[in-house]
Amino acid sequence: MAYTQSLAQVKDRLQIHSILARQCLAEFLGVFVLTLLIQGTLAQAVTSGGTKGNFFIMFLASSLGVRLAIYISGNVSGAHLNPAFSLVMCLLGCLPWVKFPIYSLVQLLSAFCASGAVYALYHDALQNYTGGNLTVTGPKETASIFVTYPAPYLSLSNGFLDQVLGTWMLTVGILAILDARNKGVPARVEPVVVGLLILAIRLSMGASCGFPINPAWDLDPRLFTYMAGWGPEVFSAGNGWW
User: Fold this and answer.
1) Residues 66, 79: Cα–Cα separation, whole Å
2) How much of the chain, in percent, has pLDDT values that exceed 70?
3) What phi and psi, each to the nearest 5 degrees, are found at residue 134?
4) Alpha helix (H) residue ranges in the chain
5) What does the pLDDT average to over 140-147?
6) pLDDT at residue 71 in the model
7) What is the pLDDT of residues 155-186, one digit of tens each?
8) Is the pLDDT of residue 98 over 50?
9) Which of 122, 136, 124 is nearest to 44 (CA)?
């Protein structure tokens, strides 16, 4: 009896009682898992010269990653996983504005940490594939593992349209899935349907920019590659494995 009480006391002391802290932890874990799976799939494909992955496999991994991330964080933070979506939730009155910078910062920090984890996991593969020469362009470039780059032919205006339309499709799709006034999605199946939405958007809009509609997937991973040895070109290069 005393042992059970002691365990209960330890559990109570270790439990995070702050709702905001739990929400931040949920967002961190969700973005971390999502980024880890997406970048891990890319790392496997790139460092194997395309023999252990292709575009469809990468798109499928992102779909499954979103699904898992929602299951991890959905009931705690709402599984925003994206500063752009957090902004939409604020505009719709579903998230207090005071939480927007906090959610965004946590999401960005998580993506940075996940990039570091992928780099550590595939360090030897990267060294073997590149011979230790980490580049952003060229036949052995590896920066696109962590960050998406526009195709060489893409203009600024077309890239802007690509991102606006992709983000719009993602937001409208998620809101439609979650709207109880629509036909509705069976309980606990929403993450699966959102994952399929991601897959559909990536298959139809992923060629020009690589689908970087989440600032958390782009800004901090780009900063990580700059710090990890790819250099300042990560902020200016216009092509990659995509």
Assistant:
1) 9
2) 92
3) -85, 115
4) 2-14, 19-47, 55-77, 83-91, 100-121, 123-130, 156-178, 190-205, 215-225
5) 91
6) 92
7) 888 888 988 888 889 889 988 888 878 877 77
8) yes
9) 122
Question: Which of these, 105, 124, 139, 91, lies nearest to 220 by C-alpha position?
Answer: 105
Rg (CA), the chain: 19
| Domain boundary assignment for the chain | 20-117+137-235
Half-sphere exposure of 174 (CA within 13 A, CB side): 25
The residue behind tokens 């595939």 is: 122
CB under 8 A, 24+ apart: contacts of 55-61: 55/206, 56/203, 59/199, 59/202, 59/203, 59/206, 60/199, 61/37
Please give the structure tokens belonging to residue 89. 């939730």
Residue type, 113: C
For residues 81 and 62, give the distance between their C-alpha atoms in angstroms, rounded to a whole number.
13
Of the two residues 213 and 237, the one the predictor is more confident about is 213
Cα–Cα distance measured from residue 233 to residue 211, given in angstroms and rounded to the nearest whole number: 20
Given the candidates 1.10.3720.10, 1.10.150.130, 1.20.120.140, 1.20.1080.10, the CATH classification of the domain at 20-117+137-235 is 1.20.1080.10
Nearest C-alpha neighbor of 174 from the set 108, 76, 92: 92
Q: What pLDDT band is residue 2 in, cutting at 50, 70 and 90? A: low
